[in-house]
Amino acid sequence: MSRLRQVGDHRGPAPVVHPETEPFWRGLAEGRLRLQRCTPCGTVRFPLGPVCWRCGSFDHEWTDVATAGTVSAAVTVRRATGDPLWAGEVPLVSAQIDMDSAGVRLPGRILCDPDTPPPHGTPVDAAYLAAADGYGVLCFVLRESSQEGS
Amino acid sequence: MRLGGTDVCVVGVGTSEQFGFDLGRSPMRLQAEAFTAALADCGLDRADVDGFATAHGSPTGVDYEEFTAVMGLDCRYVDQAWAHGRWSTGLVAHASLAIMAGLADVVAIANTVTNGRGYARHLGGLGGHGTVEGLRDTGGGHGEWSVHGVDTPGAATSLVAQRYMERYGAASEDLARIGIGFRENARLNPMAILRDKPLTQESYLREPVISGPFRRCDYSLANDGATCLVLAAADRAADLRTHGVRVAGAQSIRSNRDSYVLFSRPGLGVGFADETPLRPEHHPVYEMAGVGRDDVDGLYVYDSFSSNVWMTLERFGFCGEGEAPGWIASHGLGVGAALPVNTNGGLLSEGHFGGYNHLVEMVRQLRGECGPRQIAGAEVLQWTTPWGDSLIFTR
């Protein structure tokens, strides 16, 4: 699986990390997009959770998943009406991304021009923002710009 | 709804003396006003109330035990849900069941909202992450992901509207028709906070964008005020001064992976489940009430955000998939429309009182008390939400 690029620092509220979910957040800071895969039925799941929603099994392993995805929906948040930490970051683009092979939809910012949030179907690649305590926060970059950068 | 041969009616309704952005009155004061007004409405006394239920507890509202203590009530049935608007159907259904089962004779359902620019600025707040659910591993229930900059219900719901508009080709003008329609309705409601603020396509489009396709008028109001409904068995209602409005049917919130994001609808592909065509659902609320969808004289929708109306119209089959913007353009939403929607002005223009203000309006409409905004001959009114719960009140 391809490694994620660090594309900046996370300036929003710190992720809430606890022992059962730490591999996801730690993995991001190591450039890895890791999710839980059910051992008996193979379903990769999101959101993070202790049980497989499909078969009910608790058995799972953390697995690296493919980092390519397409935009399901993306919006430009122009006003920070919630946490004031976002006031210095708006306008920002945030989205839900359909991951091409893992079969999950993941949330994250897209680091791109906020005046042209990408439409449904736009190819993107996962990346990460470095957060405190050795964690990372998932984000995305447009496929085109990620190729330019590589 | 019927259990043990008993029907339940809403016998009294009341609100705080005013709805507004900053009334200078505490949640307890506002709720006491609404409760007192609802009792006066039906002629019951505090001593008659032996059941109490609320959803809007502290820090924005009043917890049940604070209220019973301050009001001097002696209740043998209490219920308190989570501080969100989504519990309106549940509170009414559970209170009705409690009366049917003999757990209480008279249940008051009271809820209070205050906002950060109103009385809540004097009180403790919720802090960062937008809503407390922003701390969950699964994100917020409206689709918030506070670490990704989508930390408010509005920003999250703007993703719902964005996906809908791209998928079905709806435009900003279509979104505007919702807020404009409810603002027009509000002009006929003296309690509506924005009754004197006309909205047009031109003024809507001049408003700055806040998130995704949403402008300010796509957001419900943040305000202060309280509501109260008093429920009792139908035989008790017959002795009261008001005409009892029957709680004829109910169905709960539907909860599964495709309804996690509350202000989306199944099949849209917002949240955790796949994008699919809209599948027809069975809505038992109609059978329970003994009516059909075509019998509904007025629809009341939880319109915390404008796009909720699209979701609800399609989910309940008032129009087909992707057809809601066209349905609104051709039918209208006003009191003279074939199906009036949110005649009170909705959460967008009367004020955000968790939808309980819609239930108060439904009772007043069924009693024929609504003056210039009265739906002629209203006999069957339906409460609906994008997440699938519903109530039907009948005259």
Query: How far is the first residue's CA from the last residue's CA of chain A?
Result: 15 Å
CATH superfamily of chain B: Thiolase/Chalcone synthase
How large is the radius of gyration of chain B?
20 Å
Tell me what portion of residues of chain B adopts beta-strand conformation.
Answer: 5-15%
The name CATH uses for the topology of chain B is Peroxisomal Thiolase, Chain A, domain 1
Low-pLDDT segments of chain B: none
Instruction: Label the structural class of chain A.
Output: mainly beta
Number of strands of chain B: 11
Radius of gyration of chain A: 15 Å
Largest interface, C-beta within 8 A: A-B, 43 and 39 residues
Overall geometry of chain A comes to globular
Low-confidence stretches of chain A: none
Describe the overall structure.
- The complex is a heterodimer of chains A (150) and B (395).
- With 150 residues, chain A is mainly beta.
- Chain A has helices at 22-29, 143-149, and strands at 6-9, 34-38, 44-45, 60-64, 68-77, 92-99, 105-110, 123-130, 136-142.
- In chain A, the strands form 2 sheets. A 5-stranded mixed β-barrel of chain A has the order 5-6-7-9-8.
- The radius of gyration of chain A is 15 Å and the shape is globular.
- With 395 residues, chain B is of the alpha/beta class.
- Chain B is 29% helix and 15% strand.
- Chain B has one domain: Thiolase/Chalcone synthase (Peroxisomal Thiolase, Chain A, domain 1), CATH 3.40.47.
- Chain B contains 12 helices and 11 strands.
- In chain B, the strands form 2 sheets. A 9-stranded mixed β-sheet of chain B has the order 3-2-4-7-1-8-11-10-9, with helices on both faces.
- The chains are: A mainly beta (150), B alpha/beta (395).
Characterize this entry briefly.
Chain A is mostly beta strands and 150 residues long. Chain A is 10% helix and 37% strand. By secondary structure, chain B is an alpha/beta fold.
